[in-house]
Structure prediction request, 336 residues.
Amino acid sequence: MDSLSQAALGAAIGVAVMGRRTRPWKAALIGALAGTLPDLDSFHDHGDPISNMIYHRAASHALFWQSVASLPIAAVVAFAAREMKQFRWWWLTVWLALVTHALLDWTTVYGTQLGLPFTDTPFGLGSMFIIDPLYTLPLLIGIAVALSLRNKRGWRWNAAGLVLSTAYLCWSALAQQYATSVAQESLRAQGYQVEHLLVTPTASNTLLWRVVAVTPQGYLEGFTSLLDRDRTIAFDSFPRGEALYTQLRGNPFVGNIARFSRGFFKMSEQDGRAVITDLRMGQEPRYTFNFVVAQRQSPDFAPVLPPTRFSQRPDIGTGLTWLWRRALGEKLPPPR
Prediction:
């Protein structure tokens, strides 16, 4: 999730655990800092953009390492706050802020390596978009009221913000299951053979869901809204670049993206450059993660070392207009 959501969650946890045991502003500040601490890994350069993508949300987001690190971090916090007698409560605050950061990231589609050092599998439920105001606003309101009132009524507002935001996460998972059932039903009815299926929310909502289905012929993209009267999804078909992938599958960077994206990728040749694209983030024809991994030197390709990344930005105005009209159940073709 975005940094504001993570900071808000950490601050709310800090107030919930420490609000009665220290100054509320101090509890909120330290909770917010602990809640954003795992994302400092994004400042570490692993040498190339593909490795930077894969190793973000790795060790710093692993539940085991977070639990180990929470003890010395809590000791520093308690010492700096001159509240060593409250060490166990500061430890609980720090630990909760760290692990809930990782678990919140798990609800997005990116991939969080929760199980390190035991497994490097990137887990991603994909029920939440990276930014969703309906998740963040209850936390911010609860924290603001708690810091303003500094009494039992304020603590209840903070607790209510935590409950509502958590309930929204549960709702998103249920909505995803419904959208998945609609997608599976529609794919079966249209006779598609599906190898991998991805159902994720579109930007900042849980009404409109994007469906990506990998097939032997390529991949399909379609959209379904919880407000649609007709459960049939109109799919557009696109090539996946299987021939190019076969030619370059020995390139380790290609293999890394294929594994990290859990099979949701495509390859294409653009101006003599071989490009691999993560299909999970973005929508046709614009994606966030595109990597140039090779350059054509006819008839073969030479590796590009290190790979270069580029993003394709959508037209925000056109995209938002389509998104909200489509989310409300109007069957409109997506902007291309």
